[in-house]
Specification:
Layout (H helix, E strand, L loop, with lengths): L1 E6 L5 E6 L1 E4 L4 E5 L5 H8 L2 E8 L8 E10 L3 H14 L10 E13 L7 E5 L5 E2 L1
């Protein structure tokens, strides 16, 4: 599960939780959400979003979390078929409900992984050099 953050027309932040399927080849997240929800109305107006995925634990040495920035698009045609295949492979029980699918195109990632050392961060950006701090 991921937390997705949006901003409404007045600039107020909003967040929700989503089940997603990650596509490592395209560096995207496919998720389902009804177009009547607040967060969908937000990213239809402004496609920029942020998200986070975290492993919670009381054991500090195994904590890891990912912060994401990107844009949400509504897949169509071939892209929609690819999104369906990815999402329903991960969540086959969702297929009969024919949910509305969205794709978060990830532009940048900051991943903190304490297994590599306390507070070690890895960065990835679609358009820049990537590295570890």
């Amino acid at each position: 599960m991921a937390t997705l953050a949006t901003v409404d027309a007045q600039g107020a932040p909003y967040c929700c939780n989503i089940f997603y399927a990650y596509d490592e080849n395209d560096v995207t997240m496919v998720f389902a959400s009804d177009s009547k929800t607040a967060h969908v109305s937000h990213f239809i107006a402004d496609s920029r979003v942020a998200a986070s995925v975290v492993l919670e634990s009381k054991i500090v040495g195994i904590l890891r979390g990912t912060q994401i920035c990107g844009v949400v698009i509504k897949p169509e045609g071939e892209e929609l078929e690819k999104a369906k295949k990815r999402y329903f492979k991960r969540f086959p029980y969702a297929a009969p409900t024919s949910p509305e699918l969205w794709v978060l195109k990830i532009e940048s990632i900051k991943h903190t992984d304490n297994r590599l050392g306390f507070g070690v961060k890895q960065y990835w950006n679609r358009n820049k050099d990537n590295g570890v701090e």
